[in-house]
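Inputs:
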Amino acid sequence: MSSENRNSVWSQLKAADIVTGEPPSAGHASSPWFVNALTGFCGWLAAVFMLALLLAVFQGLFRQPLALIPLGSITIFLAFFLLLNQNNMFTQNLGLAFSMAGQVHLIFGLTQILPEQEFIIGITIFAIQLLLCLVMPSYIHRVISMFIACLALYFSIRQWPVVLVYFGLLLFLSALVWLNEFKLSKQHHRIQPIGYGLVLAVIILTATRIFDNNTLTLASTTSLNLPPLLARIITQLAIAAAALYVAYKILPRCEHRLSGRAGVLSFTGIVLLCALATFAPGVAIGATILFIGYANSNRILMTLGILSLIFYVSHYYYQLDTTLLVKAMTMLVIGLALLGGRYVISVVLPQDKRHA
Amino acid sequence: MRLIEAGAIKDDQLEHAAEIVGVYPDSSAWRTFMDKTLLYTGSAAITLSLLFFIAYNWANFGRFGKFALVQTFMIAAIVAYVKFGNKRTHAQATLTAAIISIGVLLALFGQTYQTGADPWQLFALWAVLMLPWALIANSAAIWLIWVVLLNITFLLHQMVFANFWWFGSAPVTFTIFALNSFALIAWEILRKRCQFLDRDWAIWPLAVTTGVAITWMVIDAALRSRVLATPLLWWIGWLAIIYPYYRLVRKDVFVLAVGCLSGIVGITVIAAKGLFKSVDDIASFLVLTVLVVILGSVAAAWLRSVYQELNSQ
């Protein structure tokens, strides 16, 4: 934001009696997302070399889980102190490398002493990552920890029926975090990275799931004896519930009553779109992320939503469970429904009568 | 965000502040957003349904019927473009649909008459045939589609003639690098004259593609013990142009970050190659760890300072 824009925002807020006095000095600008991504990548690369270094120095260490756990814990502890200095990029990079290397030690040690059960291992990693996400004083670390926590929880429950609603749950949590982003200013530095971690997890996991069609089949046949169609419907219902929550939060912001014309139109549109997109996994998720992004003027979220939509629709072409004729008909119905929805909005909610 | 971080606004006033400064779009903004989104996604879905239908190659639907369907769709899209030409959103959506339908028509032609043409010829012809529409569209997105088609054409051409897959071959990587560098330079020159091309988001994919291609050439040469001098010279040349131009002339921190990342990866790979040849593994890994941390820190600190400088102007 330029100084001109900053002053304009300050004047607007002052006129509304939200702030008083002079604007605070520009101070340190928070890093843009691509600088954070670069720092995260360098931290990861340095951690790989650090791990290789430790492996080369302490040969045989990875066969001693009781030594790995304290070593990993100490390394993460050191990382915490390095990350405390948030304005020093050297300590930030070094702290990330220390933490990632420490986590590999700790998790590898734990997997060796824990019983060979996916659930316990996954839940342990989930708990560690959740703790690190809350405690570690680094924006990038929080994004990565939240992302890995979601992946670990998925790993631990992936053969259970509950996995069917997991994507909807992640989407709902993303919406919950982002649509309440501005409610707690003191926690803003924690809320934002948690939100990004959740959104990245739901996008990546959905992409992984559509490449691995066995996951849903496994859950439906071995645990619930549900036919694949029913499993898909349950998954889509959870996603639809999350999308409806988004509309429920956004409508009052625009001074629309939930039971008014805009409310009824929004809820009907969401249910219809989710029903039509049942066989095109990810489409409803990508669209919901796009809307969450627009609701907060967050271009990163909007871009993630658009890119994931493009990816999921492209993948739909190659999906083997239905013929291209069925897919063509599905896309035609979705397209007509979207254009029809646009027409209905223009008739029911013309610009001058939109506050119904 | 900075006001929130500075604690200048009370918690109970934050949502109200977000409404006032426009972080929360108002009803009218939502209405416009929904209008555009439903138009773009709706027309894209219908165009894709046409593509899926032709790809299905339904025997019961005769040759004549298929050609009539695609051509009617194309004509309808063009008629809609002419009718709604004064509305930018409508014009872009209909023209994009028409452009995609050219590809569908060419695919149908190949499918029906079994011309024996290679896939790269389809994409090359598609790029040529859409060119007049791209010229009249005045749209950065449509020009970006044109560049993507050229990239696919060259990749598929090399798949046929160079027997490669993806970035496994230096000539292919160089072709992609050269093509996208040319597109990037042309775009930078033309954006001053054509306002519709003056979009940073359109430049970024080109910068990323050139960065990935040239960095991969360096990595490929270093790891496969090929001659490193040529890709190294191109890489240094690319960095020598990127840094001053996007620091002093255009001032784009994203492209600078692409250059920094390329620099970090390239230097690390070259250093690793030299280290593992001359010293033992422990020393190599130690030096590489420190090197990556230092390079990453310097790059991030510099990018942050440039970003802050641009924001304070």
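The longest helix of chain B spans residues 281-312. Flag for discussion at group meeting.
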